[in-house]
Design a protein that fits this description.
The protein is α+β, with helices and mostly antiparallel strands. It has 3 domains: 2-155, Medium-chain alcohol dehydrogenases, catalytic domain (Quinone Oxidoreductase, Chain A, domain 1, Alpha-Beta Complex), CATH 3.90.180.10; 161-248, no CATH class; 265-391, no CATH class. The chain contains 13 helices and 14 strands. The chain starts with a strand and ends with a strand. The structure holds zinc ion (ZN) (2 copies).
Length: 393
């Protein structure tokens, strides 16, 4: 097979190398269909990472099709599509048991070298020097994936033409009664029926449901992006859906572990494991679409009814507001994000609270390191956007 091979500082070449084989019962062989050149690969290219040897195959991020599996890999079979994380994890050690996959204790046979160089070792990594296990990487036609029952994430194949055809068939034909008449708040008659029918057909088939719903939401957003002046430019949603489905074939499809929790903002933040919160504060009632603002249609469509739980953000657009109530809401959000190390809060200097009010409020929680502002006067008449960055001391 062909692969990108490191030959020394500033010297990589595409060369013929031996095809990988199953060596252990928990291995799989993946035929690479997409691979990445990462910023980290520059460290190898520039000769900054010790223990590279001429002939090493690089590339640590890739996805593709499983073409062979060892006898102990029960969760994958030939023909599955997978994304392979760059850290190789055994699944059984203390770190793997705590979801700290990149710290796996069992996959780097040369951990002692990394220990000596950096004080500790990570898991074995694909295509990233012998100090990290010397595993051939993913800028290659095929890769041997060790512990393939742990790392690779299965993805669905994108919708094929036949599935797209069948889901779009008769979507424009009105039925007796719309299962979700609320759609008429956002859409014209024809599009509302289209979305209603599409949802019903998507839910009939669990194998394609996620993708069909996501594509449907994007088609609905497309419809929402037209106003009175531009509506003549709008193309049929069926055409848009078909184009989006075609595009998504070149990208990642949705896999079963992707989940949308649909939690209220504060609950979501409290449970989030993240280093950074980017909070984009709505200006207040002024520039929001009221109860029929854009994101609300998606909830209504997917659930088949107006959702009972409306988070603070959606309520913000609908309730009569005072500056006090607005700042209290922001305060509650910041409080529930107190564990998140870094905040970047974006706000606009109009509406109920000024940027000054917001910055004073943030300061009651933690110091602000920097404020960035952007003058949008030219396009929106007197608007200024601020992003305030603060970090936990
Ligand atoms: Zn990378
Ligand atoms: Zn492990």
């Amino acid at each position: 097979m062909r692969a990108v091979v490191w030959q020394g500082k500033h010297n990589v070449q595409v060369q013929e190398v031996p095809d990988p084989k199953i060596l252990n019962p928990r291995d799989a062989i993946v035929r690479v269909t997409l691979t990445a050149i990462c910023g980290s690969d520059l460290h190898l290219y520039n000769g900054d990472i010790p223990t590279m040897q001429p002939g090493d195959v690089v590339g640590h991020e890739f996805m593709g099709e499983v073409v062979d599996v060892g006898r102990e890999v029960k969760n994958l079979s030939k023909g599955d599509w997978v994304v392979v994380p760059f850290a190789i994890a055994c699944g059984g050690c203390f770190f793997c048991q705590h979801d700290l996959w990149s710290l796996c204790d069992n996959t780097n046979p040369n951990a002692s070298i990394a220990d000596a160089a950096y004080g500790y070792s990570s898991a074995g990594l694909f295509g990233y020097s012998h100090m990290y296990g010397g595993y051939p990487g993913g800028q290659a036609e095929y890769v041997r994936v060790p512990f393939a029952d742990v790392g690779p994430v299965k993805i669905y194949e994108p919708l094929n033409d036949e599935q797209v055809f069948s889901i779009l068939q008769d979507t424009y034909i009105p039925g007796v009664r719309m299962s979700n008449p609320d759609l008429r708040r956002w859409f014209g008659e024809a599009d509302a029926w289209w979305l209603d029918n599409l949802r019903r057909k998507a839910l009939e088939d669990p194998a394609i449901q996620d993708q069909a719903l996501v594509l449907g939401m994007r088609a609905g957003d497309y419809a929402q992006s037209f106003g009175e002046l531009t509506c003549e430019l709008k193309r049929p949603l069926t055409t848009i859906f078909r184009e989006l489905a075609g595009n998504s074939r070149t990208r990642l499809a949705i896999h079963p572990h992707n989940r949308a929790y649909n939690l209220p903002v504060q609950e979501f933040l409290r449970a989030a494991r993240a280093d950074l919160m980017y909070l984009n504060l709505p200006a207040g009632q002024a520039d929001f679409g009221g109860p029929a603002g854009p994101p609300a249609w998606q909830d209504t469509w997917v659930l088949g009814r107006i959702p009972d739980v409306i988070d603070d953000f959606s309520r913000l657009a609908t309730l009569p507001q005072s500056k006090k109530a607005y700042l209290e809401m922001v305060d509650r959000i910041l409080l529930s994000a107190s564990r998140i190390r870094k905040w970047a809060v974006e706000c606009r200097d109009i509406g109920l609270a000024s940027a000054r009010d917001i910055s004073d409020l943030i300061k009651t929680h933690r110091n602000i390191q920097a404020t960035y502002s952007k003058d949008l006067t030219e396009i929106s008449g007197g608007l200024r956007n601020y992003v305030m960055v603060s970090e936990l001391a």
